[in-house]
Give the backbone structure.
Amino acid sequence: MLNSLTITQAHDKLKTKEISSVELTQACIDRIESIDTKLNAIVHKNYDKALANAKRIDEAGAFEHPLTGIPYLAKDVFCEEGVPTTASSNMLRNKDYVPPFSSTTTERLNAVGAISIAKANTDEFTMGASTETSAFGVTRNPWDTSRVAGGSSGGSAAGLAADEALFSLGTDTGGSIRQPAGFCGISGIRPTYGRTSRYGVMSMASSLDTIGPFAKNIEDLAILLEAISGKDPKDGTTSSRPVPNYRSLLTGDMKNMKIGLPKEYFVEGIQPAVEKAVHDAATVLQNLGGELIEISLPHTKYAIATYYVLCPCEVSSNMARYDGIRYGHTVSGAESLLDYYEQARSEGFGPEVKRRIMIGTYALSAGYYDAYYRQAQKVRTVIKNEFDEAFKKVDIIISPVSPHVAFPVGAHQNDPLAMYLEDVFLTAQVMAGIPALSVPCGLSADKLPIGLQIMGPQWGEETILKAAHAYEKAAWPDGFGRAVL
């Protein structure tokens, strides 16, 4: 099936005119229409515009860039001019919000001829770890539809894993690319903060949000990261550092690469299958010429607590703009402006968004700012410095993405704390601002994917991509495989 191709495979066929972009795009659309009722990965469809763009690209006949004519899914927080974008929240869904502008990321992809075909489901305003807080309902895992796809980018991960597109876009604030990639058996990368532009992407926590791609293999991931990275005048947090040709650096050479194994990431409670798969992956990397070194990151245990102080504080600030006045959910019959705000936000926001707003507002309030927010910022610095010291000894650090495989839908429905702990291996990297990716490293006994997390120093995306590519080629020479629905 055309929709099951990788980017590089499809590009070769498009260049030789063996297939057309219209055929490729239509294959993805047909796949969505045939299986998405089982997954609920797609929330807004953009088929007519996508097919028109594909036709235009075919008529031009130039497929010089690897992404020209390639269809993709964008998480429902990436603004695209004229396309509904609602953050999977009733706050925007109830008024069918359509942005009058596009995100830098989708503009860059459009400039090289990539084709957006649909918006993918997400936890409401990206707040969640399972895509169960979406106003459109839960997204299910294509490997086992009784399980979650992960979150918050669950729609992007599940849709790609089910071959509804050739790549997808996500955001990673506290693991929201890496965890769903791990749960769904695909690859995804959180770049260094500042490598990709956040302009036009609906914010949750501005100092933590990072834009990144999902792909079917590491080579595709390298192509995508290069295409969307770089300085953006519209986003002052982006770096002016040159963007490497990541694909050309995928040499497969691991000789003398030092690989850190942090003992804090192999703790009591981790599923045996997950621990074994990650240790097996470490052995593969060692056999390729890497040197395994045990390291310690003792402040990792504080990362979750730090994250869940800082993140809600920024949520409290960012959500203030959704007041039902300029745009968003509106109400009638309010007796005062305050009453209007209360009604609009109570009806428009779901429970998890309200919970984080309340936590953040409390932590920022007079009398608690120093005890919580300021202290969390200090711990954040300690965690960053700890990673900086570790990377003086090793080139990369590896760990599980999650202590377990995808959990059943509803497993944490009445336990927000258990849901927050899903990010246990994923928030320290956020505090440090370092790049990290997920690559499949095995299957559990019940045939659910396990993800290997590879971390690198700031601006070290090429190093982790190089290691992941070498591992992937050695461990899965014929590909990891896809979910079968």
Remarks:
- The chain has 16 helices and 13 strands.
- The longest strand covers residues 436-443.
- Residues 369-390 form the longest helix (22 residues).
